[in-house]
User: What shape does this take?
Amino acid sequence: MDTARKGFNPFWLLGRSGAYAVLIVGLIGTLLPFFYIIVSSLKTEAELRKTPPDFFPAAPTLKYYEAIVNDDRIPLERNLMNSVIVSLSRVAITLFTSSYAGYIFAKYHFRGKNVAFGLILIQIMIPFQVVMIPNYLLTVRLGMIDSLWALIIPFMVDAYGIFMMKQFIEALPAELMDAARIDGASEFGIYWRIVLPLLKPALGTLGLVTFIGSWNNFMAPLVVMRSAENYTLPLALRSLQSPVNTEWGALMAGSAIATLPLIVLFVVASRQLIAGLTTG
Assistant: This one.
């Protein structure tokens, strides 16, 4: 019994309980907005305008989902497909450019390497709003206004992705590359056949982060898009808002539709995300 008393640490138990309490509060704070979007999309117009509002709908309805699908102002299927095309294209291009550039910065030595990498790090610190006007002028000169290419081409190179891949590749043993060179492999072959397969955790993490960022991007489509057929989903939902009237029910239903793919993606790839972050 004396041994049991000596082994019991009340401070450890208190710290453990406090950690779980903080995690639970954080989980509730994170999930509550998404849950409120879903329950609000099931309310009637009177319940949405009620003050103070009821958290749960008295008579759940799907009329707002039907309304937004059949709304002539929003070609929802086309807008959803635009978001998918842009997001997947940016993921594929970013994974290639980031991993290849990261491999070069990690395993090659050349004049001006530190300066070039420093400029990339500076780009991470610059918000998009600073380069928005130059990016828009470049898009105009290339004739890509009101085109999905305007949301893909300017974002082919991701500074954060290069930084992340460089940090990960630096941990790979150089003996693998040297052995491949002795066997006669080309430099690109070394990257493609040896380095790239070892980057799966980091590539999965970067791909997930890039997809979420592209899917939620609102500012870039707002600047370069003109026609509703080329809108991405966040910009299409903006059409439901106006200074005179905001259709909150349809907006909540559209937000739920836009959020659901991200939730499913995160649930499926959460282990990959954590593994990539911790390994990198």
Summary: The two ends are 46 Å apart (CA to CA). The mean pLDDT is 86. Residues 180 and 190 are 7 Å apart (CA to CA). DSSP finds 14 helices and no strands in the chain.
